[in-house]
Amino acid sequence: MEVFATALPALGEAWALILQPIVLGYLVLGVVMGLAVGVFPGLGGIAGLSLLLPFMFGMDPILGLALMIGMVAVVPTSDTFASVLMGIPGSSASQATVLDGFPMAKNGEAARALSAAFSSSLFGGLVGATFLTMFILIARPIVLAFGLPEMLMITVLGLSMVAVLAGRIALKGLAAAGLGLMIGTIGEADAGGSLRMATYDIPYLTDGLKLVIVGLGVFAIPEIVSLLRQDRSIAKGASLGSGWMDGVKDWASNIWLSVRCSIIGVVVGVIPGLGGSVVDWIAYGHAVQTTKDKSKFGKGEVRGVIGPESSNNAKEGGGLVPTLLFGIPGSGSMAIFIGAVALLGSGEIEVGPSMLKDNLDITYSIVWLLALANVVGTILCIGLSGGIAKLTTIRFTYLAPFLFMLISFAAFQSGQNFEDLLALFVIGLIGIFLRRFDWSRPAFLIGFVLSNPVEKFTNQAFQIASFRFRKSFEEGIDYIFSPIVIVLIIITVVSVVLGIRQAKTIMAEGDVQSGSKRAPMVFLLVIAGYLLVAVINANMIPDFNMTDKVIPLAIGTFSVLCCLILMVQMMRRPEGDVIFADKEVAGEDADAPYGLWSTLAWFAALIAGTWFVGFILALIGFLVAFLRVRAGAGWGKTLVLTACGIGFMCLMAGALNRDFPPGLLQGAADLPWPLK
User: Fold this and answer.
1) Mean pLDDT on 613-639
2) Which H helix or E strand runs over 642?
3) Which residue in 349, 325, 372 sits closest to 15, CA to CA?
4) SS3 (DSSP) at 346
5) Greatest extent of the chain over all pairs of C-alpha atoms, in Å
6) For residue 674, is the peptide bond before it cis, meaning its omega torsion is within 30 degrees of 0?
7) Positive or negative CA dihedral for 34, 159, 352, 213?
8) HSE of 564, CA atoms in CB hemisphere, 13 A
9) Residue 395 backbone dihedrals phi, psi, to 5 degrees
């Protein structure tokens, strides 16, 4: 009864916050932005939230949350357009939808597939929100009992699952997470202030890399570059056909399949690191197993759409469980979400046990904003389906320069330094090669996000444990090995064992063909080289600052060991083995008419131009040159699109009171805004 006495008033306060017109307005705005992002294959919630991240600083908490939740909730719904209309997975969570959704579209049943998917997504989202409400009621007393050893162990659990369940080659997942952790330690250490992989010769690195830059670089840039290289429209046709009500009837007649797959989505979402990379395949497998006539799957079976779409929206509710309760990201988008919450208001909100204790009303606001966003998102998706279908027939070459424009502006807002753009380019390169060689990018990102909690909890728990051991051995052991810690250790061991057994069925970057040994081995050597340098650098920290060096040394050494084992495996295995996965061997990347470096040169030219003449002048030159030369547009279309892009940038910067990156010209001349 005490639980309900605390929770019911918080639920009432949450609804009072949510039902304010301005909050609902921000929610709808977030849904519209998520819809725009989700339509483009590969961008997804991580890139969308990364774009929002710079604008969260100081924003009213409930408004910022409404904006972010609106975007997070609708992406698993809107990415269905890419899967059904284009045959391209809109995100990792909609891979299985392609198997039957695209054949249905080719059979003239796109409308039926979309309506069945949207109905399933709405139901799954509501199931996820309901589960989260009930789970918080039950789990709140347990979570509030968590101390530093428990938080450290839950962080290790999250890391172990992310790493092991990251792909067919478990060592790649471990090394990717280790690389993310090591890059996350760059800069000044929290405990003793030692510099790691940063000197005062490069002041920019002293504060470390910003989450928005890592998120955009690892996820947005690789997908934009890949689509741009193919130089075609995203979809070939824009016909939806008829059958909107047929899809709803299909969902209603398969309601119990939707219920079961929604529960699968919630359960998988709760486990940190599994998330979208596996949930749709588990749900799809369940749909196949529970259908008597399996012959239609892969040819346009509507149950093959209902199962995955029910699960991938429900997983967002499940993914919020470890995020809100423990501060452990349940997916890549939740990793960005954690960073964004810390920026809201005056920074008083922090996900984890303290949020359940001090901000229970905000916690429930998040839950039911998620439910409302699913309703609004489904309505908008249905209403805008015709227009979105036509949008996908536009050549991506016309869209790419404006996406480069947006991510450059968003990256600069994270630190207001020109070096932000250079960092974005470098991390983008890392993301491109992680994607190419089938290394898990979500594992890398979550490793980056968890680098600070791992170090903080380890150092603090070590200090307290040392004090208790000095009092008595029994008191120290009781502190370290509490009942909760023991349970979490058992769960971690079980998850690692099961993860290793299941890893071969999980594809970090889809079905990637294997090629020669040379390129994957060169990439591995580069990664191992960086990790080795980072270990040597950490070892140079004086011993009296041991707390600043122990985590980088331990994680770096482990990651180098993983790379060495991978190298031995690569030398022993024949060419064509799955360990040599390379997207440049076969598939869209291999057949693309434009090369990687010539495509990246356009983005590099925008950054170089910004260094000399500032962002707006460089952007004018970039848009005109790109549209004329790369897109082959006429002068009229080029000038109109350039004017629209510059006008949009100025409108956004003016409304948000933001500056543009300056160049050498701005230091030599006093130019009017927006040129300065």
Assistant:
1) 91
2) helix 635-656
3) 372
4) coil
5) 81
6) yes
7) negative
8) 8
9) -60, 135
- Specify burial of residue 103 (Cβ count, 10 A radius: 0-12, 13-18, 19+): buried
Tally the residues of the chain: 676
Q: Which residue has the tokens 């989202």?
A: 125
The CA radius of gyration of the chain, in Å to the nearest whole number, is 24
How far apart, in whole angstroms, are the C-alpha atoms of residue 529 and residue 526? Answer: 5
Residue pair 665/658 in contact (Cβ under 8 Å)? The answer is no
Q: Quick one: DSSP state of residue 671?
A: P
pLDDT band for position 244 (50/70/90)?
A: low
For residue range 130-145, what is the model confidence (pLDDT) as tens digits? 877 777 777 666 666 6
Q: Using an 8 Å Cβ cutoff, are 441 and 428 in contact?
A: no
Say how far apart CA 106 and CA 241 lie, in whole Å. Answer: 10
Provide φ and ψ at 634, rounded to 5°: -70, 165
Six-digit token pair at 298?
């892969």
What is the pTM (predicted TM-score) of this model?
Answer: 0.73
* C-alpha to C-alpha distance for 210 and 30, rounded to whole angstroms: 22
Strands 195-196 and 187-188: antiparallel
Per the rule left: phi > 0, alpha: psi between -120 and 50, beta: everything else, 242 is beta
Q: Which residues, other chains included, contact 544 with Cβ-Cβ below 8 Å and sequence gap of 6+?
A: none
Burial class (CB in 10 A: 0-12, 13-18, 19+), 191: middle
Residue among 417, 387, 459 at smallest CA distance from 194: 459
Token output for 117: 């998917």
User: In DSSP terms, which residues pair with 395 in a beta bridge?
Assistant: 233
pLDDT tier, 61 (very low <50, low <70, confident <90, very high otherwise): confident
In this structure, are residues 112 and 302 in contact, taking their beta carbons and an 8 Å threshold?
Answer: yes
Q: How far apart are CA 397 and CA 632, in angstroms?
A: 9
What lies within 8 Å, CB to CB, of 444 at 6+ separation is 176, 177, 179, 180, 218, 430, 434
How far, in whole angstroms, is CA 156 from its chain's centroid? 20
pLDDT digits (tens, 9 = 90+) for 67-87: 888 887 777 777 777 677 765
